Amino acid sequence: MSIAPAATGHTQRTSDLWWRDAVIYQVYVRSFLDSTGDGIGDLAGVRAGLPYLKKLGVDGIWLSPFYPSPQHDHGYDVANYRDVDPVYGDLEVFDRLMADARRMGIKVLLDVVPNHCSSEHPWFREAVAAGRGSYERTRFHFADGRGENGEEPPNNWRAMFGGPAWTRVTEPDGTPGQWYLHLFTPQQPDLNWRNPEIPDSFDAILRFWLDRGVDGFRIDVAAGLYKHPELPDSDDPEADERSRDSVNPLAWNQPEVHNVWRHWRSVCEEYTARDGHDRLLVGEVSVPTAREHALYVRPDELHQAFFFDLLGAPWDADAFHKTINEAMRDIAGTGSTVTWVLNNHDQVRTVTRYAGEPGPEGSGLGSARARAAALLMLALPGAAYIYQGEELGLPEVVDLPDEVLTDPIFHRTGSRKRIRDGCRVPLPWSGHASPFGFSSGAEGARPWLPQPDWFAEHATDRALADTRSFWHLYRDGLQLRRGLPQLGEGTLRWLDSEPEVLAFERGDGLVCAINFGTGPTAAPVSGTPLLSSGPCPAGVLPGSTAAWWLTDGTIG
Question: Could you report the per-residue pLDDT of 156-209, keeping only the tens digit for each?
Fold first, then answer.
């Protein structure tokens, strides 16, 4: 079976669009590298790490929010969209980072947060102070409560991070007042995109950073922004809280949001027309099906949107087969390319997710599967995103003590289930004890989240020295990707294989096979692999292993 993107009538050039097959490295700034010794990563640390990323071979970086913020959700509660929080540096440091990245040929994407801002943003402070019925409150979703004295929330929605999606304010005269909507935490009030000042302001925000030379934006909660105009009760009000995902159809994926992305695309195209350099919009789009996902990457909307279904798929050949098929059919069929991802700052790391048991104890099987999945992802036509530490084979840190946890999910629910601190522990760079080279401060400087002793096994200096490491697998895969002529545009043809094996050939002659089973099986190609995730004799594909071969295109 051959899968190729469907004809769309879209005539946009594709040969020089760097983003179509780019590999972007997600930098969680707070945990990447600390240049000041305060235990918190910063922009100067990112700048110092650019040679490392250049050596790894990525095409660009996506920076997590570094804007001024009270850090209730580590930057996803933005108080000022056009500056740098002092804990991360300042605009001068950012400009130096941009200059170095440009010189090295590394693209830079910023994380923009348009669905909500911080409760300390001047707009929200003005809204609370202005009182009921004011223009300032129309920038948000303020509403009167239900009940005899307005003591009940305006509707029954629950927040994704736990608890009611509404918080009541005290009016300027000291009396209990209206309620405001927040689909995450009370410190992150949702903006009202039906107020024309909001889209106009974000237009200016985009231009501010584009004028400073950024190559594009990762858009947080890209299926959000608009809510049902009547804010009615939900038939399943706990859906978002239960799944920790954007499920409530009254709060997410409203049709008006597509006009926002059409406008943002036009802004990017305006800058592209000036210098011929493409700017990228990649959305965090969480919707139920690949077909709905595809609506966000139509030719005049977002360039790309993260395809999370591969990240969410269980370690199973049929599940991966179904997921890849749907993405190639529905998303690539729009004229975009699929944006593959296996890890990010909100999810349990693959080494632990695939292990079947938590922590480093299960990292043997988990590591083998994570290596195989990485090679599969890098072989698929389209773009790919790597989360920092993925190239080091880091497992999730699952035993952080309660008193150090910072995730608002934990603090709102009291539950450790689905908390995100474990994948955000600062990276180990060198040495045998914390801070493992993460902090340049005095010996013993404490990272903002504690690093376990076993991080020494995954330190960057050790990974670079070991040719069998995750790091070398990623580096070799990225180098080989660059030599494949149809990387972004290629077709995908499934080959006959054993039940627990997936094998496909691309239009450029690359064959990739992955064995989801535990025992060896016959390889789909007889020769020695070009690259494999583990030892792979000619003609054999061991269990939990993936491999690449390059053929003349006549196989099968």
Answer: 999 999 999 999 999 999 999 999 999 999 999 999 999 999 999 999 999 999
CA separation for the pair 305, 377 (Å, rounded): 16
Burial class of residue 92, CB neighbours in 10 A (0-12, 13-18, 19+): exposed
Q: What is the dihedral of CA 313, 318, 323, 329, to 10 degrees?
A: 180
**Alpha-carbon distance 342 to 526, whole Å?**
29
Which is nearest to 367 in space by CA: 395, 344, 398? 395
Answer for the pair 19, 383: CB distance below 8 angstroms, yes or no: yes
Query: What are the start-end ranges of the E strands in 273-367?
Result: 280-283, 304-307, 339-341
DSSP 390: G
Sign of the CA dihedral running 291, 295, 297, 300: positive
- Tell me how far apart the alpha carbons of residues 99 and 134 are, in angstroms, rounded to a whole number: 44
Q: Report the pLDDT value the prediction gives residue 419, as an integer from 0 to 100.
A: 85
Report whether 72 contacts 117 (CB < 8 A). Answer: no
Catalytically annotated residues = 220, 270
Report the alpha-carbon angle 215-487-553, nearest 5.
175
Report the distance separating Cα 254 and Cα 193, nearest Å: 11
As a whole number of angstroms, the distance between CA 395 and CA 361 comes to: 10
pLDDT of residue 156: 97
Output the six-digit token pair for 246: 């954007």
Low-confidence ranges of the chain (pLDDT < 70): 1-16, 357-363, 411, 441-444, 485-486, 488, 552-556
303/14 Cα distance (integer angstroms): 12
Angle (CA) 389-42-205 rounded to 5° is: 105
